Amino acid sequence: EDSEPEDEAPSQLAEAKTTAELRPEAIHVDGTERLSNQAILEVFMAKALPQVNSIEHISKTEVVCVFNSAADARKALASVQEGFDDCEDDAEDPTERQHLKKKPGLWRAQNGMLKFRAATVADAKAKASRFRAQASEEVQRLRINGDPAEVQKAKTLVLNFLEEFRGGRHGMMQAQIRRGVESLEESLQVPADKVGRLIGKGGENIKKMEADSG
Questions:
Q1: φ/ψ (deg, to 5) at 187
Q2: How many whole angstroms separate alpha carbon 81 and alpha carbon 70?
Q3: Each residue of 29-64: pLDDT tens digit?
């Protein structure tokens, strides 16, 4: 006896849940590069679907559309996965054609360029660790002694040199200051691979900084 075919939707949801926990109130959309939020919203508006509450951009080509409830998200996902044949199509009227061109999101959806699925908790923008490499950078200490005004000038010159070497970033430098009655001592931690360039050939950079700072 032949059994009735099982509903594919529950099995797809179960399979997705085994790999990552679902976000029941959200839909993942792929293929959204260079689309504005308004263009993405128009995809759902064209089918008179529940309102999208917010749009999370997780990469240049992916977004997560968050709805007010899981029921709204399920309804929207089922509808967009059925296709967009029920939406306005290329019309022979030039005015209608021009109107469609102004909706790039809907045009992509009609041409199968947008992919929709249930969103998961894994669909999140990766957090950048901009300073991770710099944090473990080997450093050496540079000590500047002398009159406070001269030390400040020398420090500025050193920082300017380092900024030049690093393309505008001082990096992980720390300063320690010791003050005497008429003198100042300041220490800077300088990346080890920049020390040679800071000193210069035959100490020319150091000599120049000494001359410039007095």
A1: -115, 135
A2: 16
A3: 999 999 999 999 999 999 999 999 999 999 999 999
